[in-house]
Amino acid sequence: MNERFNLPEPLKTGRSIEDCLAERRSIRDFKDNALPNTHLSTLLWATQGISESRRDFRTAPSTGFPLEVFTIQDTGIHQYLPNQHGFQILKTNDVRIELAEICYEQPWVEKAPCSIVICAVPERVLENYDERGWRYIWLEAGHAAQNTLLQAVALNLGAVPVGAFKDEELTRLLDLNKEDKETVPLYIISVGVIDYEALKIKGQDYRSDGEYT
Ligand SMILES: Cc1cc2nc3c(=O)[nH]c(=O)nc-3n(C[C@H](O)[C@H](O)[C@H](O)COP(=O)(O)O)c2cc1C
User: How, if at all, do strands 157-162 and 114-120 pair?
Assistant: First the structure.
């Protein structure tokens, strides 16, 4: 499958970085709503969007652009294409139950309408930095993930970073390594519309009931 499509322009929410930092919490209670493409577009732009097209430089700092970003939604698995700010469709079936199983049955991973999976092609960095490149790859995944998490706050969405998953099974689910360069999954951010009622019941109503548009 080689079908591609463009995402809409990312939104500019106007929220301050200080508010987003202060409000960020791991949120694990999501409603069923799918994410509109404008929100998805904005989250992916924050994660790995191109902010300087002359050099293809991204919203997150990089030692050699090792990161590849995938989304898992009810519509299937898509790969983010920073250069066209669009998607390549990889699968069209809903694999969120399998993803949650791979994440040791974390229920919020199954419930989240979208999980963003940050992967890396290590060779792009290791060829210049040898073994120290691994450190850079992990640091880069952290930079990108924090961008995603803060952007989720700005959009009044909930998000949780997920590091507990079975590497080989996630590699298989994403069908990585079809090509000659190894690609490894590093980090997942599950995102969704916040279920404020569920948070209140658990006494976790620390995020104000933000307007979700
Ligand atoms: C590297 C990393 C991996 C994590 N993995 C998981 C995970 O697999 N599942 C989960 O529910 N939370 C995960 N978390 C979220 C932490 O549990 C959470 O950040 C912590 O409880 C502090 O809460 P806060 O994010 O609201 O500040 C992870 C956090 C980090 C930094």
Answer: unpaired
Nearest CA to ligand 1 atom 12: 162
| CATH assignment of 4-201, among 3.40.50.10580, 1.20.1260.10, 3.90.180.10, 3.40.109.10 | 3.40.109.10
What number of other Cβ atoms are within 10 A of residue 170's Cβ? Answer: 22
pTM over 0.90: yes
- Residues ≥6 apart with Cβ < 8 Å to 201: none
For ligand 1, whether the C-beta of 26 sits within 6 Å is: yes
pLDDT in tens, 41-85: 999 999 999 999 999 999 999 999 999 999 999 999 999 999 999
State the distance from the centre of ligand 1 to the C-alpha of 180, rounded, in angstroms. Answer: 33
The sign of the dihedral angle between the CA atoms of 85, 24, 169, 103 is negative
